[in-house]
Amino acid sequence: MGTIERRDQVRRLIAAGGVHTQAELVAALRSRGVEVTQATISRDLAALGVVRGFRGGRLTYLLPDDMTTDAAGAAEARLRRLLGDLPLSIGESAPLVVLRTSPGGANAIASAIDLSQWDDVVGTIAGDDTIFVACGDAAAMHRFRGRLEAFLQQAGATVSASAGGQA
Question: What are φ and ψ of residue 11, in 5° steps?
């Protein structure tokens, strides 16, 4: 089986929701007759744009949205979905916005913010549960925060302030 076919199998397994780790992906592919290593799966996940995030309260793999949409639009749609699934608190210290979420959720949110290509965002740094979002200046920081809070409200999520941050 070639790379394209294997990655299609990986995409299908993730879409079905039955695998949550690379080891589970390796085992599922092997049960389908596809011999693969964890290193190959890691490369496939990166090539497919797969991120880790929470769905149904469990850390799992998330596929990018519909590949027919533009990359920034797909990333923004993914960000909306993540904000609906993950708790988030927002703090700020101009020109940084500090986001806190569940352990393991920061990278997925930061990646979606970066890929959304918003003019107000210079870049992000993510740890396990904390994201620093660098904005161009205080005005850009306020616009970014407003947009993020609007997404949270649309998702029905509660907007809370981080310790030491402003609400």
Answer: -60, -45
